[in-house]
Structure prediction request, 290 residues.
Amino acid sequence: MTNILEMSSRQHLYPTIVGNSKSNEDVDSESKTCGKILVVLSWILVIVTMPFSLFICFKVVQEYERAVIFRLGRLLSGGAKGPGIFFILPCIDSYARVDLRTRTYDVPPQEVLTKDSVTVSVDAVVYYRVHNATISIANVENAHHSTRLLAQTTLRNTMGTRPLHEILSERETISGNMQISLDEATEAWGIKVERVEIKDVRLPVQLQRAMAAEAEAAREARAKVIAAEGEQKASRALREASEVIGDSPAALQLRYLQTLNTISAEKNSTIVFPLPIDLLTYFIKAKEES
Prediction:
């Protein structure tokens, strides 16, 4: 019983589907016939109004431009026209100019909350161009405006997934990731994103002061460590020198003479002459014996 009902329902649906397909074909054939008639009438108008119609029918686009032509609301076969002269029929053809030159978009500063919960203000520059004029007109209402909005959203999303130290130190990597993401998203719009550069990362004033104090403390700590290492090396050198002088008593006398030579070379009026300690010990021993 169930099979019989299913077969009967299919038999009822089948004529409906066939009828719809036939109606669509009829509409298409009628529209094609009407379009051909309008094209013929447009050619007759061009011939009748010669040569004045040539000023309307012939158009020129520059080397960096392309023209996307619509005939009766449909894209004309052959793709975009240009550069140079192209022909359109009056009343039934319309065209749109597309600039293929690279455009620069300065992304306004975006307030972003980083992965480690720090609020920063980031701005960037996006370089893009139209690489397929037909798609940029037919697939999206305003390719340039859509690309700019997507650039702002991508900048916020990318910065929100990274901590502050990566944003400050890995700008080139972040820019490359943004460029790849934007290029993949705008491929369906006929847009090619050539380059993305992060201009500036602005930190809150309190955070700047804290980072400056931290950096200053780190520099002071390194300076103290370097000074301590220098004193340690100097003490080792002095110990080695004292050992050498202790092994040779004459070396101490030579050191005295070298010091006198250095003092006299500086043209000082006062010269301090060091008294050898051995001489004092001689007098002390003589006093003890007496």
Observations:
- The beta strands are 58-61, 65-71, 74-75, 84-87, 93-99, 103-113, 119-130, 191-202.
